[in-house]
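Quick log. Single chain, no ligands specified.
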Amino acid sequence: MPSLSQLRAQKPSPTPQADPAQALTESWDGPSVLGNSAYKERIGQPEPPPPGGRQRRPGGRLRPLAQDGDGAAPDIGTGVGPTTGPAVTDKPTGTADPVPAAGGQAAQKYSLGRDPYAVWSTGNGGSKEMPVNGQYKASSFLDHHSDRSRAWAANQLRNDKNPDLQAYDFTFEKTDKNGKGVAGTGKGLPFHAPSDCKVLDVQKELSGSGGYGLFIQLEDVETGRRFALHHMNSVGDFKKGDIVPGGTTVGSQGGSGSSSKSDYPTHLDIVGGEEAVLGFVQAQQMGTYTSNLPAPGGGGGGRGTGGGQK
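-> predicted structure:
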C-alpha cells in the first residue's frame, strides 16, 4: 500500500469549477449505490428504542418517523449533480475550516453537487431537526437513549486523541424542492467520508456484529479524530488499513443492528467525539468533503463508490 506522501504526490491540479449547464446529473431514486447487503441471521437482542419511539417535529408537532415505503415520496429533488468534485469556494455556514495537512497545505474542500439532506437528531428528548444551513454545534444534539461512553465501540476508538466518546442517533432524508425532508426516503441513503480517512475496522454482515449491525470505523488521517457508523444498510468493499479519500461513499443508512426487518425507524448510530460527529453530520447534510488525496483510481477529484486505496 502506498504511503500518504505517495498518494498525495498523485494529487492532480484542482479541478476547475464545472459549468452548471453542462453538469452531469443522475437520480437517487433507484437502489442504493452500494446495493443491499444480504442480512443472514438475527443475533442477540435489538437495542431498546427510545421512550415513545424516535420522532421528529414537523411544523411544531411531534409525529412518529414514517417507515420506509409509507406513502409516495412527493416532489423529490434529483439529488446528485456534477460528479467531477469541483472545489467549493463558499464554505457552508457552521462547518469547520480545512485542516492543514502535513507540510502546511490545507486540505481542499469539494462538493458532491447534490441536494442537501434533511437531518434529525433523535434521543431521549424525542427528535430535533437540525438547521438546513448547517449552522449548529454538537451541543444541539440530543442525548442518546443510553450511555454508551464505555461500551465496546467507544473502547475500540478511544486513545489519547479521542478520550471522550459517546453515541448519537440521527435520521437523514432526501429533501424536496423546498428543502423539506421527505418521509420514507432515508433507507439506503448514501454516506461519504467527510475527509481522507483510514479504515480501523469494518463489519459487512449482521452475523458476528455483536448487535452493532453493518458498520465501519474511520480515523481522519490528518487530525486523528475517530468515529464509527453503525446500523448501516450496506458498507463499502473496504478492509482494515485502507486509506479512503474524502468524498468516497462508505455505506448507506439502515435502521437496526440485529435484524433485516424494520424493527426501528431508519437511522444511523454514530459513536465518536463531539467534533468528529459534528463534522460527519454536517458533511453529509451539505454534501461537502475535504481531501488532499486523489480520487480512487487516480481521478482528479471526482468521488464515488468502491474500495479504499491499497
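The longest strand covers residues 226-235.
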